[in-house]
Amino acid sequence: MASKESMELRGVIARNQRWDLIIGTIGLLATAVGVLILMLLFVDLVIDGWQRLNPDFFLNFPSRRPEEAGILSAWVGSALVMIVTAFTAVPLGVAAAIYLEEYAPKNWITELIEINVTNLAAVPSIIYGLLALGLFVYILGFGHSILTAGLTLGLMILPIIIVATREALRAIPVAIREAAYALGATRWQVVSDHLIPYASGGIYTGVIIGLSRAIGETAPVITIGALTFIAFLPPIPFSGDPPAGPFDWLFSPFTVLPIQMFNWLSRPQSAFHVNAAATGIVIIVATLAMNGIAIWLRSRIRAKLKW
What we know:
By secondary structure, the chain is an all-alpha fold. It folds into two domains: 1-51; 55-303, Orthogonal Bundle (MetI-like fold). It contains eleven helices and no strands. The protein is globular. One of its GO terms (cellular component) is plasma membrane. Pfam families: BPD_transp_1 (PF00528). This is Phosphate transport system permease protein PstA. It is a multi-pass membrane protein. Its main location: membrane.
């Protein structure tokens, strides 16, 4: 009787192992197909646009002549918008996550907020653009400016940063908190001296991944009125006659790399399509670089942690 039960148990284990192998193989094949398609598309993009990747392409303004056109105003606009986005989303996102995870009482209001934060991470980006158009452009009067774009993208990546920060805080063993409280530490001392340093790898990862998503967004930036052709840069603080103020650049018209790429793709001349391919290379390389930095930071910080 025992031998029969043992054989049945071995049969169940063998079937489960086969299913594990099948599911693992399907997942590996799906991942390989996705990576292969991405690599093929990127290689095709490089073949089309690599000849335009020279210093003039990065230092020239857009032009009606494709061979003289560049992305100076676009990459400067993207950089400034990302600065505003980071200064908006990172402090708010990390602070909100710390409050929800460590301070907020566990009741139905907190649960409702948590559900909404999670759902907002999946809202289409065009919705944030429409929200920003009504709130920042018309109600608050910020206009079609760098400030409006940065605030819009900051709102868009805010749920991503909140979720990533909360997951990083949850990954810290409860014993760390209990040991600190046992030694008489206040809640803020536990958060500032223990939880944030230990969770910094996950926080950095969430922030950089959120910014790498924002740098490639087009729909919300088009909605708030980004220019498709701009041949000047935002004013440099304390320059010009009369001198520009320290924050005048925040209210300057702008364009970004995805908008510039979209503009060139809409042109009938094939030479502009080559410029668009080169711009696509720049966007992809910037995104991959940011994700690579996030992975490197996470592994480096985790290697230094000693529980």
